[in-house]
């Protein structure tokens, strides 16, 4: 008897709760936002603010690790099931996703986003553009490239920032000097040099490995120069021969055995937070050598064609990407460099960065963001990148001929990018 | 006989019991077994059979998955011909076979004597010792791979530290071990070492598992065989070689089959150790990784499906070969 009674109470309570949740969920629209760390932090901090403006919209954030998130999105687009209303996409996947046709064309009605495109750093919009002039996503944050270096090591070696960024020959000479006097390597890997040089001198509309028409553009002077310089760096013995994000790499940056690193401006945050917090005040940021302007990463928001709440999704995307206050908040609190030009002009940009010895580095990053060419991305970029890296390995380690290696790489890319 | 039977049997008339036949025909018995077995079939159909057939179907198509199901395009056997003539696939198969042998053979060559040693030398503490050997098998592959990448780290890894300290060990002016051990740190991420490193991790992970398999087989070998051999004056190694090894043959077949299947599908260890790329010059890229990369990095699910079926055919063929070699002759 007792048991039955108790059970009844529990059932009643459960029923009421269920009914309550059901009605409250019914009255509101639940907007699903799929994202990945640390891009999801922006959504997390936006939820309470957005709720104030739109109390009827409940935001559900689904966050997975970087790789898992993009795999999940690929399969969701493939099957048309389990799609979020708002999809966060990172730079490395935007080319494939934008050309897939599985995302809403934001240039078409009712979005008509063409009018907003000029609000963003000019290089971002072409990245999210699909083959037939469709706009698949709106940029949220960007990663303008910078060269981080240990000023104390440079001073000890008698090398100036100017020596480093003037041109590549001077860069290599500076590296030798640093190696001789301090024993530190100038760069982590010769591959880094290649990665910067192949991004230099690109005009708007050109891609790194493919041009706008999809022709392969790896067997040319840009790549030959990149390979030649990478080899020169290896031969000069100024690279530590470690890959980024390996334990040797983080230890090298921490101990100062690697004296500089070219990467997105966000590396400053990683250095300060966990890689080398003890070296506060010793690091500086400079422009990339040889007048190169390149971007490392960046994030976008898109709406899948099969999303349920497209109108609400679009409102939310506009809030996240075009609302000046939101973009500034993300810039200030999360150090996510905004894609919105208006937010880049916020006074926050003039604040000195204590970790970089009080340098006003964000102004420099903004200047570099202004000059990054509007590059074209291709869905086979990851394949081409792998082939080029393999080719460079042959040149660096087995002394293969650069021209022959690139010709072979071109053939390989042609074969693999067969569709 | 019949008198005994009737004595044991309970009086029939008093309790009215249905016969077995009647009971089986009761309505519940007709559908109940199907109901109880249905979860397996439902799950198998959704997660086993359907993907299997779909991937076969997919392997004859070109499909850009992000464009949705409607974007499938029939290409016939092009995916298969492309995969088979593709040097990346060939490299990955070579890597897989290399790893299968380099990680597989030592597993068994060490597991069998080790199991024999555990079987004969430990009495009370045997289960504890076996548990220790078994531990790597039940530990997360990701955790193991991460720990080993740290151990194999070039500048800060323990393995290089041990090797170089042995190589640089000096007596007077000579380094007696320099011919065997390196005197400088080895970069295990270099293409020439990547496979060795992965093979070692795989070996370490599965040697305990095989030991347990062989140990359980040894426990079924009748003791009188050993006793008879002892009476005949056979030494311990002779007993091992002429009794244990031949009697283990069925288990060897089973364990080697598992190793073949497992090693040819090798994915997690090389994936974590090489950071998902396959390492420099793809030296550590296995066929399973190539399949994954083709699907999720290159976005070509059709070719990836074709690769998986080629891999299936290869595994089936090698298992058949193993059966010919170690399986029971009829």
Note the main attributes of this structure.
heterodimer; A: 419 residues; alpha/beta; D-Maltodextrin-Binding Protein, domain 2; 2 domains; seven-stranded mixed beta sheet; globular; disordered N terminus; B: mainly alpha; MetI-like fold; two-stranded antiparallel ribbon; 15 helices
Compact summary:
Chain A has 419 residues and is an alpha/beta fold. Chain A contains 18 helices and seven strands. In chain A, strands 1, 2, 3, 4, 5, 6 and 7 form a seven-stranded mixed β-sheet that branches.
Report on this model:
The complex is a heterodimer of chains A (419) and B (330). Chain A is an alpha/beta fold and 419 residues long. Chain A folds into two domains: 187 residues, 3-Layer(aba) Sandwich (D-Maltodextrin-Binding Protein, domain 2); 216 residues, Periplasmic binding protein-like II (D-Maltodextrin-Binding Protein, domain 2), CATH 3.40.190.10. In chain A, 50% of the residues lie in helices and 12% in strands. In chain A, strands 1, 2, 3, 4, 5, 6 and 7 form a seven-stranded mixed β-sheet that branches. Chain A is globular and about 65 Å long. Chain B is mainly α and 330 residues long. Chain B has a domain of 206 residues: Orthogonal Bundle (MetI-like fold), CATH 1.10.3720. Chain B contains 15 helices and two strands. Chain B has a two-stranded antiparallel sheet with strand order 1-2. The longest helix of chain B has 35 residues. The two termini of chain B are 41 Å apart. The mean pLDDT of chain B is 87. At the A-B interface, helix 3, helix 4, helix 11 and helix 17 of A face loops of B.
